[in-house]
Design brief:
By secondary structure, this protein is α+β, with helices and mostly antiparallel strands. It has a 3-stranded mixed sheet.
Length: 123
């Protein structure tokens, strides 16, 4: 799939989120990248570039101070090639994998840990 088609699916997934959640994503940008860069791979101690479907970069909402203004937007990165490989291996649709990845990363935006997301079934 080309990046434009993948991005269109990501846009539909974002639009499908409940209004209550969308209201908290005003200062979040969604970015599609083919794979994580070398720095991300190193920082996250990944075995390879296909181990990561998405990544939240920013300060979780619950960790923020009301005294410090937010300037740069938080980012939710979607790694297209990793998601497509995951779908080929599992038979899951790309659209569902994108939506699940977005929901998982939005969970991090709200301050949930990997363990908490797993407990909620959002691993």
């Amino acid at each position: 799939m080309d990046e434009k088609g993948f991005s269109k699916l990501a846009g539909r997934a974002i639009d499908s989120l409940p209004e209550q959640i969308l209201g908290y994503l005003e200062n979040v940008v969604f970015i599609v990248l083919p794979v994580p860069d070398e720095e991300m791979i190193r920082e996250l101690d990944l075995v390879d570039e296909f181990d990561l479907l998405g990544l939240y970069q920013g300060d979780p909402l619950l960790a923020r101070s009301l005294d410090v203004p937010v300037t740069l937007p938080d980012q939710i990165l979607l790694f297209q090639r990793a998601i497509e490989l995951h779908c080929r291996e599992t038979g899951e649709s790309v659209e569902k994998a994108i939506r699940d990845t977005i929901i998982h990363e939005v969970g991090h935006h709200f301050g949930f840990s990997e363990e908490e997301l797993e407990e909620l079934g959002l691993e």
